């Protein structure tokens, strides 16, 4: 399983992928989110929600690298944190499309498997 190699004390979470690049599980480091909230006077719930969405993005996008901006960027700038706190921060359209396709593909696979099992 890929992942599990936290190399920076500033990393707030990590995602684990299987050999095929599909997301399996993610860890969130709440102590680091709490520290970030204290250092930057942010709303813990907002930070945690965005961190959770970011890590779920890794699970759904697979082995794709971080983006240069938006919710999937690796490091949050002050400008990004401000946008996040204002609720103006999200996935890019391309990321949304890929995640939607991944979810729809999984739903179709599950449906086909159920239909096959019923025969």
Topology:
Layout: E1 13-17, E2 23-28, H1 30-40, H2 44-61, H3 78-85, H4 93-118
Antiparallel strand pairs: 1-2
Any overview of this molecule?
The chain is mainly alpha-helical. The chain has one domain (13-118). It has helices at 30-40, 44-61, 78-85, 93-118; strands at 13-17, 23-28. The longest helix is centred in the C-terminal third of the chain and has 26 residues, at 93-118. It is elongated, with a radius of gyration of 16 Å.
Name the descriptors.
two-stranded antiparallel ribbon; 9% strand; 119 residues; mainly alpha
Strand order of the largest sheet: 1-2
If you average the pLDDT, what whole number results? 84
Question: How many strands, which pairing sense, and closed or not: the largest β-sheet?
Answer: 2 strands, antiparallel
Succession of helices and strands: EEHHHH
Question: How many helices?
Answer: 4
What class would the helix/strand composition place it in? mainly alpha
Brief summary:
The protein is mainly α.
